[in-house]
């Protein structure tokens, strides 16, 4: 089986950690790959703070476990290896990963990563790979996409042999997994912020255009119903299902046309759209159809990954992604510390962090 880039990175890091420093040319020979590949790997790992790079050589960063395995710094986690399973490294989760890496580095621990690409059936095997690579504690964001995935692909997490913290995932209430430590964004609160803001600007209840292919999307849909109930209003129409324009162009066009019709008929003057990419493409297509944002339609996006880069910068709900990674890593470090000490184990924790609303031009309010 061909070695993955993540596995090669682990071997490279292991060699540098063992020696303290090494030349790129020597690493290429030991890893059995070209110097170009090693230089590319070193650039990526150095960018993540896992290596120091100087003129054709790399060294183990100061403040991390030294080449003899002893702590090189005073961090309480010096020498520890933490594993992280994430469903993606290209949207939403890069900030979560970055926050986890920052917190691990501050503690002197090393973070290693596996990506599931939203294939929950492979989560278990990828996590076993993290354990085989030496992970002593785990941060796990399963690749769930559908409502029944937590029950179908969640039980294995409760049998992991090391302390584990869930990231941005809500297990089935009352399940065994529900008793696991977790750190999540409160998407229901985020949706309420958006709906309330639009109504305070003088709009009726905004309509929702959202995907249904991720835990965040499902939470946004549930949060929308809750927000309308809290504010005592009814949805102007059924939720418009959103899909990626590049993979389902016909369905995407149908969704945009449904939104255009809602605006033309006066059914709605405001909308919340999940996610950023869809929102930007929707605004572009609406402009072609003669619907202006925010003049004809006040709009808020959900996720705030690229919302600020739209032609008309999009007001957006911003989950605290980086802080989720930081807080989850801190909680995991605490669990590892308690596991090594004496005394009664502390209660499990469910930590919920609140999103923020970042006001820009697309909602018609004055940006702040």
From TrEMBL:
Matching InterPro entries: DeoR_HTH, LacI/GalR-like_sensor, Peripla_BP_I, Tscrpt_reg_HTH_DeoR_CS, WH-like_DNA-bd_sf, WH_DNA-bd_sf
One Pfam family here: Peripla_BP_3
UniProt-listed SUPFAM superfamilies: Periplasmic binding protein-like I (SSF53822), Winged helix' DNA-binding domain (SSF46785)
GO MF annotation list: DNA-binding transcription factor activity; transcription cis-regulatory region binding
PROSITE patterns per the UniProt record, alphabetical: HTH_DEOR_1, HTH_DEOR_2
Source organism, top-level taxon: Bacteria
ATP-binding as UniProt keyword: no
HTH deoR-type domain ranges (all copies): 5-60
Keywords: DNA-binding, Transcription, Transcription regulation
PANTHER family in UniProt: ALANINE RACEMASE, LACI-RELATED TRANSCRIPTIONAL REPRESSOR
Identification of the protein by name: DNA-binding transcriptional regulator
């Amino acid at each position: 089986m061909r070695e993955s880039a993540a596995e090669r990175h682990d071997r490279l890091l292991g060699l540098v950690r063992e020696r303290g420093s090494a030349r790129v040319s020597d690493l290429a020979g030991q890893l059995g790959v070209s110097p170009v590949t090693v230089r590319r790997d070193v650039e990526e790992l150095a960018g993540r703070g896992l290596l120091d790079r100087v003129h054709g050589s790399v060294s183990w960063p100061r403040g991390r476990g030294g080449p003899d395995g002893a702590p090189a710094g005073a961090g309480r986690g010096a020498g520890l290896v933490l594993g992280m399973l994430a469903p993606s490294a290209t949207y939403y989760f890069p900030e979560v990963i970055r926050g986890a890496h920052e917190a691990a580095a501050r503690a002197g621990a090393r973070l290693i990563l596996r990506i599931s690409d939203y294939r929950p059936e492979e989560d278990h095997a990828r996590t076993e790979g993290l354990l085989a690579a030496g992970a002593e504690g785990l941060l796990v964001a399963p690749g769930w996409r559908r409502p029944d995935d937590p029950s179908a692909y969640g039980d294995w997490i409760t049998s992991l042999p090391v302390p584990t913290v869930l990231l941005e995932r809500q297990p089935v209430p009352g399940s065994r997994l529900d008793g696991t430590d977790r750190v999540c964004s409160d998407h229901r609160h985020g949706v309420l912020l958006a709906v309330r803001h639009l109504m305070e600007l003088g709009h009726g209840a905004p309509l929702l255009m959202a995907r249904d292919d991720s835990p965040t999307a499902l939470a946004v849909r549930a949060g929308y119903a809750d927000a309308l109930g809290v504010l005592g209003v009814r949805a102007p129409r059924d939720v418009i299902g959103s899909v990626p324009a590049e993979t389902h162009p016909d369905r995407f066009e149908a969704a945009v046309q449904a939104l255009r019709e809602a605006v033309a008929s006066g059914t709605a003057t405001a909308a919340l759209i999940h996610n950023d990419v869809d929102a930007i493409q929707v605004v572009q297509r609406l402009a072609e159809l003669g619907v202006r944002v925010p003049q004809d339609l006040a709009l808020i996006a959900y996720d705030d990954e690229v919302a600020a880069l739209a032609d008309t910068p999009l007001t957006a709900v911003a989950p605290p992604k980086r802080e989720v990674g930081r807080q989850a890593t801190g909680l995991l470090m605490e669990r590892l510390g308690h596991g090594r000490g004496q005394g009664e184990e502390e209660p499990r924790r469910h930590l919920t962090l609140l999103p923020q609303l970042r006001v820009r031009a697309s909602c018609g309010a004055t940006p702040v």
